[in-house]
Design brief:
Four copies of one chain form a homotetramer. The first copy, chain A, is globular. Helix content of chain A is 30%, strand content 20%. Chain A is an alpha/beta fold. Chain A folds into two domains: 149 residues, NAD(P)-binding Rossmann-like Domain (Rossmann fold); 181 residues, Dihydrodipicolinate Reductase, domain 2 (2-Layer Sandwich), CATH 3.30.360. In chain A, helix 1 packs across helix 12 and helix 6 crosses helix 8. A six-stranded parallel β-sheet of chain A has the order 3-2-1-4-5-6, sandwiched between helices. In chain A, a hairpin with a 3-residue loop joins strand 8 and strand 9. Chains in contact: A-B, A-D, B-C, C-D. Chains A and D meet through helix 7 of A and helix 7 of D.
């Protein structure tokens, strides 16, 4: 198993989460500016074995692994990931360029494990492929919409986000911009969330294609002075009367829970009943950062009656929304298709 | 003119705004715990004339004025304001208890000056009355909905707020609760905004009654680590196709602008075209804190096509949303009915 | 073992740290307003055994324990702690009232374990007593001064603090006071630190008395917008030439390390060599919050030459500076005098 | 009068302060990346006359002015400023490279106007020169030390700073670094403050040379999450007994006050008597950002008795500490030597 771009902020988070992984063993790492150095010169706190790895170029010919994680920056991810896939590697990426590719499954393991069929024939014939994970703002929304859509048929969603600083990477947001302030815009985000969510909730048709869902999704994406944890305020309209949405959310589980995958939280969705939760600082580490916390569930009101639902959700953007989500996806792939990491 | 509860945080803001007012002259102030002291002992930075005023009890018999401003805390506002009105005073309040009273006009001077007819007969016969101003979160929303409703017919609104710390008063929100955090709940707010907005946009019927508007309004009210300025993210659906909403918002003016009232901003709504505005810290003082700043206007999308609009708005919660709004209301009243302050 | 005032913020931290303690078992808890309720009604996340404890009055006759921890608020600590001591209890307190009592040892286990001799005769004759732990701002300063004083003789200290919000308790500092701000004053703190530090570094004379050290200590105590972790900037002058202060600090250990007490960090002082450490958010959990992190050590300069030292230190104010420090003190007492908790 | 680097953050602050200046008229501006554009394309909110200026290269041959302000970044300031001086321009700079040059006066107009004699002969012979203003952290310290040194003889200073984000420029400090944190290091700052302060308080000898003062100054420079306003905690030791330091500080005035220079505050030092002032957010705009606010004055204590003084001071780092300080210096130069801006 290899980690591309391992010396960046997110790359280091992968190494941290993988250092004691029961299935996966990092045998190669790549970087951009520090090629030839030992990983330990960049990350002195890693275990000895990892520190001794040499940082290589992000080039398929240099890497001795089957599966690669790609937390590469958007600018280079597109081409590099394609090269690796063409060279026969299994690429799991949390970068955005290939998410909407028709031959790349976009996966949240609890939601749409069957989308992996898209790459099944390539897998069996030993060819490479790309499996993508969604944007950090999409993840929590899609996780909560899945059981609600299954139960009540979601027709329309209005989502307003309160996104954490770490979502912008490092150095990211200047402190002078965000202190005593909110920034009511995050580039590209309001387009990604609807497209990705509808792909995630789409139907896999005949093993070859994903027919996206057709929920109308309106987003407003905003940056707030919070370190980690994306909070989202959701309004939705359903096809059918909404009954006991709390139970529908709280009892939702998926393949990772059934298969007891190592990084799977026991509950993908945790419901809090206090009237002022979820809160980023208090709830972001729920389920080791892998659970989405939902609160303030309220339905009904207005002429729309029992076909309207409002709630807040919180997801840890750099764990479930990045490295953790990708690792869980790799675990699902490994388990379903009996691949060693 | 008197200010009740003048020694509280909001009371002092009234005194600050009134100290050089061209029409109104503060001749009496009341307080709770500091009765008998000179105002200057509490507020040493006020002009000499104000500093020398004695702090009196909030009792009608002690006050030698015609018009009183009431920034009293909710707990005492209800009874005290009623007593003053019964004793013949003209009460302008930004407290909540009487806002929904059927005989109390709820006023934003640019929106519904005709609602003052509700108190016209009492005014002419020398009787007292209460005129209320809305909640600080309602104000900006209602100001922007008014021209949009007149032009396109607003059917449904989903509003998510990012509210400032000063909205909770002092000491208000503990720093341990809000540092590196968002609190997704503000007590009572999500109920007040729909009710007040529909009253503000309602029709005055036969001089006696307000028939509220019937817009479906869904709110999510949240506290963020910002000192002043309520930011709101708005989604709305209209009856008619939305065409050039930017112009509709920007060119909106009302009676205060036509009458050139002293506290009226030249534009009730200022539109910013940058993709990351309005921002609380940068925009809250627009129009001396009396203008609502709108940005990120985007319409269309989804099946709803041209009958959907999204935007952000920002209103200074302690100026337009409290003292400033009440003073502008008093100016309107004074001008329309030729009352000296 | 009992915890007085267990339902307050600090009380709950004691319960959290004690819930799996290898030596101590909480058998009684007291509270103020919630007497008669089960602890689980206040703290639903505690283990079953603790949740089932009944909250009792803070009265000696109600408590069935030998040792009591007292995180009581200052206002009630003085009298309540005295009552418990008179009734024969061993009281360990992190409250301030008894810290400077001549018959109460003030203890940082690594610094002055021999001060416990003050209570030895009472202990042996089965009488009660009070053992105090220092102010959260004193702790880190005293821990770093001890080895420096032993090696070089500290003559004068100028300390400026950057103290965390949690040091003010809850609700504590209003967010409106600290957002985009620093508050350059904390009541009482600048007097406590010199007095307590000199008592801590004092000599135990003939088993009966503490002769305080006589370091001149000048403090400036300030509140900053940080959740946990008191940062202090220290300047000091010594009697003797300062040589290799880094080694003196880093190699310092005390009785807790030698006795391998359960809550003892392996290093009381951790030295960081980066030029921008220690930082509150990055370093406060060093040694599980029990280590003091020192950085930016620089000596020499000016006419004072090699008898001047400057450094920064960081101590977790609610762990080492409160509950953790008191529990470590109890562990020392238990080990030295063979007491069961 | 010209402003070099006028399109940067500090450059725009100069334009803002100069746009209605009674003496100085900006006739030329220079920039780096935007040469050839109109100033109005970069700064649409400036008055018409300024908006129409063309942005030129920072080259002496392009500039038609006598006096130039240089808020250039350190990297280019050294060479560019020298070129302008050699070409006969009067350069006023707030950049650091030339501050310690033996032939460049370092000026705070209230402190050392006589240091301008260093450039008097060049001025009279029509040659160019550089006049520097100090680092934003030096300014407030030096202003308060001047009257204290004159009255009591300052021997030693220990200063710990709480510096604002704007001191690091834009984008400056990443929000991820400073949220819930303090950064205990600012590169170069701890060396500049002692050197500059001693030059500022130095004696001008025979019109040719500055003999620096010899106060021992120990600094600890720290970044906190505050937008504007550097707070400093000061400890000092004096030669003589300190008597009524409050009066000494409060009554201090200098040439700018005597000459009634346009940007001079009526009081260079404002003393606050509350025990929790100065605070950055509340006090930074004192005297339009040109006054230094001092509080928490306390003397005596320890063996050092009445020869020790402690206090806090606050100075607006981008006004008095940058553009405002440079403009006041230009005003002094213009008045003393009868130069038109």
């Amino acid at each position: 198993m290899a980690v591309l771009g391992a010396t960046g902020k997110v790359g280091l988070e992968y190494l941290e989460m993988l250092k004691e992984h029961p299935w996966f063993r990092v045998v190669d790492v790549t970087g951009n500016t520090k090629v030839g150095m030992k990983l330990g010169e960049v990350a002195p706190d890693l275990p000895t074995r990892l520190r001794s790895l040499e940082i290589k170029e992000s080039s398929p010919s240099k890497i001795d692994a089957d599966l690669v994680f790609s937390p590469l920056p958007t600018a280079v991810a597109s081409e590099t990931e394609s090269k690796f896939a063409e060279a026969g590697f299994k690429v799991i990426t949390d970068a955005s360029p290939h998410r909407m590719d028709s031959d790349a499954p976009l996966i949240i393991p609890e939601l749409n494990p069957e989308h992996l069929k898209l790459i099944e024939s390539r897998l069996k014939s030993g060819k490479g492929f790309i499996v993508a994970t969604p944007n950090c703002t999409t993840v929590g929304l899609a996780i909560t919409l899945k059981p609600l859509d299954d139960s009540f048929g979601v027709r329309k969603v209005v989502m307003t986000s309160f996104q954490a600083l770490s979502g912008a990477g490092y150095p990211g947001v200047p402190s002078l911009d965000i202190e005593d302030n909110v920034i009511p815009f995050i580039s590209g985000e309001e387009e990604k969330v609807p497209a990705e969510t509808n792909k995630l909730l789409g139907k896999q048709v005949g093993g070859k294609e994903i027919k996206p869902s057709s929920i109308e999704i309106f987003c407003s994406c905003n940056r707030v002075a919070v370190i980690d944890g994306h909070l989202e305020s959701v309004y939705l309209e359903s096809e059918r009367v909404i009954d006991n949405p709390r139970a529908v959310l709280e009892t939702f589980i998926g393949e990772p829970q059934r298969l007891k995958l190592p990084s799977a939280p026991s509950q993908p969705i945790i419901v809090r009943d206090e009237n002022d939760r979820p809160q980023p600082r208090l709830d972001r580490m729920a389920g080791n950062g892998m659970s989405t916390v939902v609160g303030r569930i309220r339905s009904g009101g207005g002429r729309s009656g029992k076909k309207v639902l409002q709630y807040h959700l919180l997801t840890h953007n750099t764990i479930r929304g990045a490295a953790g989500g990708a690792i869980l996806t790799a675990e699902l792939l490994a388990k379903q298709y009996d691949i060693a990491g």
